């Protein structure tokens, strides 16, 4: 794979070794390293070695290559600590969706208890939707294929 880099991107600099990282896995296509924030112990980022801003910039080949590595890396993170009881795997796309570095990356966040320092909240808005509202959204999405 030919890699494109953005000289102003912190993750590209990490990939090229210009900024040190705590790398846990690396191959020709991806690099996985500890998130410096460590939301929970073992919080790992998986980044493609080619610069893509977000999920919308992936082509099918890059997506297949990068996302095929996620289970391998997730299993290694889980096996690294017997106290890990679960895991969130998160990909934020766009500032409004909490993306803070605009080089696509997947967070692997080990979960130890329901009280560890990580939260995702999915509000139940189903009372605001009827069949017509669901169908309208469904049809709008389906029309894009």
From TrEMBL:
<dbReference type="InterPro" id="IPR011146">
    <property type="entry name" value="HIT-like"/>
</dbReference>
<feature type="short sequence motif" description="Histidine triad motif">
    <location>
        <begin position="103"/>
        <end position="107"/>
    </location>
</feature>
<dbReference type="GO" id="GO:0009117">
    <property type="term" value="P:nucleotide metabolic process"/>
</dbReference>
<dbReference type="GO" id="GO:0003824">
    <property type="term" value="F:catalytic activity"/>
</dbReference>
<protein>
    <submittedName>
        <fullName>Histidine triad protein</fullName>
    </submittedName>
</protein>
<dbReference type="InterPro" id="IPR001310">
    <property type="entry name" value="Histidine_triad_HIT"/>
</dbReference>
<feature type="active site" description="Tele-AMP-histidine intermediate">
    <location>
        <position position="105"/>
    </location>
</feature>
<dbReference type="Pfam" id="PF01230">
    <property type="entry name" value="HIT"/>
</dbReference>
<dbReference type="InterPro" id="IPR019808">
    <property type="entry name" value="Histidine_triad_CS"/>
</dbReference>
<feature type="domain" description="HIT">
    <location>
        <begin position="10"/>
        <end position="120"/>
    </location>
</feature>
<dbReference type="InterPro" id="IPR036265">
    <property type="entry name" value="HIT-like_sf"/>
</dbReference>
<dbReference type="InterPro" id="IPR039384">
    <property type="entry name" value="HINT"/>
</dbReference>
């Amino acid at each position: 794979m030919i890699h494109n880099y953005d000289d102003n991107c912190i993750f590209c600099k990490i990939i090229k070794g210009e900024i040190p990282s705590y790398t846990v896995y690396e191959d020709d296509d991806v690099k996985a390293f500890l998130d410096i924030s460590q939301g929970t112990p073992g919080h790992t980022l998986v980044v493609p070695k080619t610069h893509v801003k977000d999920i919308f910039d992936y082509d099918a080949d890059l997506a297949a290559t990068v996302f095929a590595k996620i289970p391998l890396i997730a299993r290694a993170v889980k096996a690294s600590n017997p106290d890990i009881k679960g895991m969130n795997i998160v990909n934020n796309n766009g500032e409004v969706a909490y993306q803070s570095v605009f080089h696509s990356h997947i967070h692997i966040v080990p979960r130890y208890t329901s009280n560890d320092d990580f939260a995702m909240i999915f509000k139940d808005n189903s009372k605001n939707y009827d069949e017509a509202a669901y169908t309208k959204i469904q049809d709008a999405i389906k029309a894009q294929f």
